[in-house]
Amino acid sequence: MRAKTIDRIATGVIVAVAVLIMAVLASLIGYLLFRGLPHISWHFLTSFPQAIKAGGGIGPQLFNSIFLLVLTMIITIPLGLGAGIYMSEYAKRGPITNFIRLVVEVLSSFPSIVVGLFGLLVIVNTFNLGYSLLSGALALTVFNLPMMVRLTEQSLRSVPQEQKEAGLALGMSRWKTITSVMLPVALPSIVTGTVLAAGRVFGEAAALLFTAGMSSPRLDFTDWNPLHPTSPLNPMRPAETLAVHIWKINSEGLAPDAGEIAAGASAVLVITILLFNLGARWFGRVLYRKLTASK
Amino acid sequence: MIEIEKLQLYYGEFQALKNIRLSIPERSITAFIGPSGCGKSTLLRTLNRMNDSIPGVRIEGRVELQGKDIYSADTEVESLRKRVGMVFQQPNPFPKSIYDNVAYGPRLHGKLKKADLDELVERSLRAASLWEEVKDNLKKSALGLSGGQQQRLCIARALAVEPEVLLMDESTSALDPISTTKIEELTRELSRSYTIVMVTHNMHQAARISDRTVFFLNGEVVEAADTQMLFSSPVDQRTEDYISGRFG
């Protein structure tokens, strides 16, 4: 009888905690959407922001966020995959490897404002890249890369040893075994993790304040030559992202509808990240089915 | 077929195999028996150099496959493993379709026309007596098969790269009795065209299907003889104790 009572109490507590967390999350998202959704319109998503007048949009910021994400991923994915494969398959066990792993873990939990200041000192000033998309992408790489490395390493490690041996025993080289046996098995979780990491990059603000900058040039969305200073594709131009924009108009916005714009932009940000998460799960599942021929 | 000469194997300080001399005849089944930790699996895995990747392993002596030392500097491990296939204790099909599992090795080792590949897959699955059960479901996932079917699929996958030797590391120990019988019959069948070396925990299995039996104890070969001889009139007292169930 006593064991049963304790069991009931424990179940009750756990359910209560779960409900509490759900409630907090749901009310948070609900509040953001409730405040922001009414302001979202096609005009809001595509037009330029206004400094003093009402009716500004977030077009360039949305574009900047997406473009910066793409740039960051172009840098991080190959590096992260390579380092992760090295850590899980090639690195010899020992103090040096453990030290590298420790460094990677510390890096991935770095406060992003520190990454931003590091970016300002090293990337923006020392390397003289200025406030630019490229600087922003490199700063984001600093804290996204460790996540990619860990993710790849852990995904590869979770591939059963038997699978690896099966590949080797068929006369495949180590590299062939990694690329044709282990990576396909690990790929769905790598992809899911990458998209989740992308969500974090998309919402990042602090690391970008001093690297990608807090302003955008007057972009000309008809000029797609990456070498022109007002071209959206120019990686050397400053670029205020959506998250930075929210921070900026909240703290120093002069437009009469600054509050509404911040709310609308926040809702866009949250919706995008939600879509990333759902998309990651869906894509991971589809990929797993496709690669493993399971229904 | 395989000649092992003065083979010593160390895991760091620990000597797992001591001065092994053994010859394994062609187109027959040789069974390695002995209690856990006696080195029988370790020896099996030296025959296709699967021990190479374990840190701290050191090997001395010679292992000759058709007169050529497989541990010589000019041996390519990949082509050795193509000639010496392996089936593991746990069925380990790739999480892919049945067809892709069997076609995996051939695809990586060379370009084959679709028709030739189809034929090779069918031949391998027939040789592993699995064809009749899966021929209508070749595109289905291998993970949907039963344990015994999965193990026969692994045999088919190993056969598809056309090896000369097939190593079986306790390949029935994870299976039910009916699947075990099927694999045993299949193994007998395969020994007409392949040299088979099997490790088994089950003495009766060795007695039932092998041509020669090697008894291991503490990293040494105690006795190697024709199976009938070894089980009916063992020369060494320790062999007799083991097969009569006094230890192990």
Could you give the topology of this structure?
The complex is a heterodimer of chains A (295) and B (248).
Chain A (H helix, E strand, L loop, with lengths): L1 H35 L5 H5 L12 H32 L4 H14 L3 H15 L6 H25 L3 H9 L4 H30 L2 H4 L32 H11 L5 H35 L3
Helix pairs in contact in A: 1-11, 3-6, 3-8, 4-6, 5-6, 6-8, 7-8, 8-11, 10-11
Chain B lengths: L1 E10 L2 E11 L4 E5 L6 H7 L10 E9 L2 E2 L7 H7 E4 L10 H12 L4 H14 L3 H4 L12 H13 L5 E5 L7 H14 L4 E5 L3 H7 L2 E6 L2 E7 H6 L4 H7 L5
Parallel strand pairs in B: 3-8, 3-9, 6-7, 7-8
Antiparallel strand pairs in B: 1-2, 1-4, 4-5, 9-10
Helix pairs in contact in B: 3-4, 3-6, 4-6, 6-7
Proportion in β-strands of chain A:
under 5%
Order of helices and strands of chain B: EEEHEEHEHHHHEHEHEEHH
Low-confidence stretches of chain B: none
Largest interface: pair, residues per side: A-B, 25 and 34 residues
Give Rg of chain B in angstroms.
Answer: 18 Å
Q: Can you summarize the main beta sheet of chain A?
A: none
What's the number of structural domains of chain A?
1
Shape of chain A: globular
CATH topology of chain A: MetI-like fold
CATH class category label of chain A: Mainly Alpha
Give the overall silhouette of chain B: globular
Radius of gyration of chain A: 23 Å
End-to-end Cα distance of chain A, whole Å, is 45 Å
Strand order of the largest sheet of chain B: 6-7-8-3-9-10
Number of strands of chain B: 10
Strand content of chain B: 25-35%
Helix/strand/pairing category of chain A? mainly alpha
Number of strands of chain A: 0
Structural class per helix/strand content of chain B? Answer: alpha/beta
Give helix % range of chain A: over 70%
| Proportion of helical residues of chain B | 25-40%
